[in-house]
Amino acid sequence: MRVGLDLWHATLASGGIGRYAVELTKSLVALNSEQPGVRYVLFPGRGPAEWITRMLAEHSPVVSLGTAYWKLPRAGIPARVVRSTLCVARRSRGLELNVLHCMDFLDVPLAPLGKVRIVATVHDISPILYPDTFTRRHAIFFRALARPLLHKAERLVTVSRSAASEIAEWDKTLREKLSVVYPGVGTEFRPAEPGIVDELRKQYRLPRDYVLCLATVQPRKNLSRLLDAYAMLARRDPSFPLLAVAGRLGWLYRSFVQAIRDNRLENRIRYLGFVPDEHLPALLTGAKALVFPSLHEGFGLPVLEAMACGTPVVTSNRSSLPEVAGDAALLVDPLDVESIAWGIERIVANSKLAAELVQRGFQRATRFSWETAAREVLDVYRSCVSEFFTTRVVAG
Question: Which of 162, 311, 345, 357 could form a disulfide with 306 if both were Cys (CB 3.0 to 4.6 A apart)?
Answer without folding.
Answer: 311
